[in-house]
Amino acid sequence: MSRAKRQLMCFLLLLFITLVYITYTLRLETVTGSLRYGAHGSSGCFSISPNISFSSTDTSPRQVLPSTSPGDSPSSRPPAPSVKRILLVTYGRSGSTFTSYVLKEAQEAFLFFEPLRPLVMRKTQGMDIIMSYQAVGAQFYEPQELNSSMLSEYERSAVGVLDSILDCNMTSLTIDDYLSPVIRHHEHTKDVSRCLRSILNDSYLNLPHYLQCLIDFWNLCRSRTLRLIKTIRMPLRALFELMRKYPDLYLVYLVRDPRATLMSQRQNFGHSPMPQNFCNLVQDDVAHMRLLQQLFPSRAIAVRYEDIIVDPLEWSKRLYAALGLTMTPRVVSLIRLYTRASGDGSAYQVYRKDPKNTANRWRSTIAYSAVRLIDYFCAEAYRALGYVQVHNETLLRNTNESLTCSTNTLEMLQLPVAA
What we know:
It is globular, with a radius of gyration of 24 Å. It is an alpha/beta fold. Helices cover 46% and strands 8% of the residues. The chain has 17 helices and 7 strands. The chain has helices spanning 3-32, 96-104, 117-123, 153-166, 175-179, 181-184, 190-200, 207-223, 240-245, 258-269, 275-295, 305-310, 312-323, 329-339, 355-359, 368-385, 393-397, and strands at 52-53, 62-63, 84-89, 109-113, 226-231, 249-255, 300-304.
């Protein structure tokens, strides 16, 4: 057997042992309540690492059970912090990075940025975009509350990934999930990604180090009172079970003018879906969003990006109120910093000198013929989301004329009407 094969078999065996061990540890905590609060105990944060030790000669982890004392009884521990969960779902190049950054500043937040990218890459042979539901093995259904048996393999896998993160169950994620380029560069996930990469670069797997990487990440997630996921790769029809499982889960569905989204995708991704396929996706999402709003009227919130950029601060206050978050002076300062910068950041940054002007820039560069094609296939989506068709090039180029209207059939979050 070659050395490479032996290393692979060793890695798989150790990975299996790791998963069995961590599963046992988490169950032990649930059954016995014997894990102590660690250094962050005053804020209700579990710390596993102080209760796990490794001897110099034995690399297998051992659970060190704390001694029983009146001051350490479960009844004397601080109450667990109240957790809020938010799932921000949209399409690529629709303003979700800015929106997620606004939301993550609300309180002690844990933001997992684009966790489904590795899964989509595997399903679409590296295209990193859902070109159509057929590309990930899905079928269209009439709007209804779908159970897991009606979902595609991709959708079931995606729900599993989101469920794991919402529950801070980090052992359910794959190595690919942690090593994704998006994840390894983002604020709250870069440390675990760097930690695991350092192990994989070694000639052998350091099991205690590997365990500690996941335990530290688990501690970080559990210590935060807001768990926020931002994704551009999740069909809304697959979210009913998650919404029922987590009564504290809010869904924010962010939309942008399909013409702007498709133009920006082509410029920044190098490709974009065909207008017909993209608008079919949008129409299916809109249909199921209506049902989600009926079933969870206070927790399923639709937002239009064009409304955000008119007045980012006032809109953010409105969204915070809808989500039950507290708008602090720090958040206000950060929003002003993002939207009143001295110059525009890169396409993937949130700093803008004039957000409205930047968001409308596509209207001066897109071909009128492309707009007519998108208008043809997206007419039904426009009616639901409140966009108007462009009947002449003069209207297209005149950015003083809005391409939104108030006749949308999908309920949108709106700013209060001034008295």
